């Protein structure tokens, strides 16, 4: 439990003002207050004394882009057509259930960003890589560096047609979504921008965030959101329905609904997969939300995202589930020769990776 002691709170002045407002208006036991506080406050509810975190990262999929650099922190390639680039690992606030606060902090130099752009456009990648996800950390906290990277991609990797940017500043510190951020999107008609965010509770649709979503929509930029299923925050149908209704109102596309990933000290926030699947079934099959708003339920495992279809769960053993993936180890190593399967994974008789994944609690 050594690492739990080091879990820190980092909460923006904007979020602090919202906590004050919600506490005064509703009290600390109200779902609105808890919908936010459980995401950001270190909890004493930890129930996972025996729960061991084996990985400090979501997955190990570093990319070796050039001899002189070795592995560059902040690059991951699990999928054929998309490269993940993390120019910084600094976030404006720490979401307690996020593994990224365990990562070693970095901010990539401009020189490295140019090399990353050249890697995206080199002869091995230009026919298969057409999308990047620039995330972190929060890349919108460093707009000048982000724009530098985007310009380098436009110059050296014209094959990159879609640039996704992941950020939570809209709901954590909306004042930082200023003119310097909006200007990033202008005058770059050769690429399509998509803005990804994370929304876990209806209370996060603060008026300040709503204004930004409206303005981004007016620019014609697609906004999408992933959501994390969290015990006590949104693990009930009513809250999920309200969340997806609001996303629809703001023209925010549903992406993944993630099972909260295994991370030491967070078991109290992780519903069981069985309960999660029942909720997702109720959400998607009961006619309660628009068919255009239905999310994909996924677990973020050591080998990447796994969607839950019939047959995904192969077996259960001592709080662990063995999950079937659609990933072939041979394909992974084709497009990322540096990739090595983690100890929790195996290759089945058809060459597909299976992986052990820690279940949540009832
Ligand atoms: S803002 Fe995003 S990357 Fe940063 S801690 Fe929260 S979920 Fe993780």
What key attributes describe this structure?
single chain; 362 residues; four-stranded antiparallel beta sheet; nine-stranded mixed beta sheet; globular; TIM Barrel; 11 helices; binds iron/sulfur cluster; alpha/beta
Walk me through what this model shows.
- By secondary structure, this protein is of the alpha/beta class.
- The protein has a single domain, classed as TIM Barrel (Alpha-Beta Barrel), CATH 3.20.20.70.
- Helix content is 29%, strand content 21%.
- The chain contains eleven helices and 15 strands.
- The protein has helices at residues 2-5, 13-26, 31-40, 110-120, 143-156, 169-172, 179-182, 207-218, 237-249, 273-285, 329-335; strands spanning 64-66, 70-71, 75-76, 82-85, 131-134, 162-166, 192-198, 222-229, 252-259, 296-301, 304-307, 313-317, 320-328, 345-347, 352-358.
- The strands form three sheets. The protein has a nine-stranded mixed β-sheet with strand order 3-4-5-6-7-8-9-10-11, covered by helices on one side. A four-stranded antiparallel β-sheet has the order 12-13-15-14.
- Helix 2 (13-26) runs antiparallel to helix 3 (31-40) and helix 4 packs parallel to helix 5.
- The chain is globular, with a radius of gyration of 20 Å.
- The two termini are 22 Å apart.
- Bound molecules: iron/sulfur cluster.
